Amino acid sequence: MYNSQKEINMNLFDYKIPKKGEEFTTLLKHKNIKIIRIVSSNDFDSIEYCQDEDEWVVLLEGKATLRIEQKEVTLTKGETLFIPAKTPHQILEMESGTVWLAVHIF
Description:
The protein has a single domain (22-105), classed as Sandwich (Jelly Rolls), CATH 2.60.120. The protein has strands spanning 22-30, 33-40, 48-49, 54-61, 63-68, 71-76, 80-83, 89-94, 98-105. Helix content is 0%, strand content 54%. The protein contains no helices and 9 strands. The radius of gyration is 14 Å and the shape is globular. Strand 1 (22-30) and strand 2 (33-40) form a beta hairpin. The chain starts with 21 loop residues before the first strand and ends with a strand.
């Protein structure tokens, strides 16, 4: 059943590229998942993450290079990556305007 107070109707491609860093928009939180749209600039802090939940990402636009388990992985538009819980990962480089869809599975 549709609940207008909990669901948001939006266009994934209606965004502005931040001048610095990244913009995170939670699209859905339901039971054991959270779906986030991330819009990235190429001016960002390269932080190593090690999350308690699994994460699946797809690149909707742009290009990004990550380090995961001491290997470099480059993603381009349409490519996906599964990052198991407790796996250290870090974004090394990104094109301005890179757009991600991240699904966190708790």
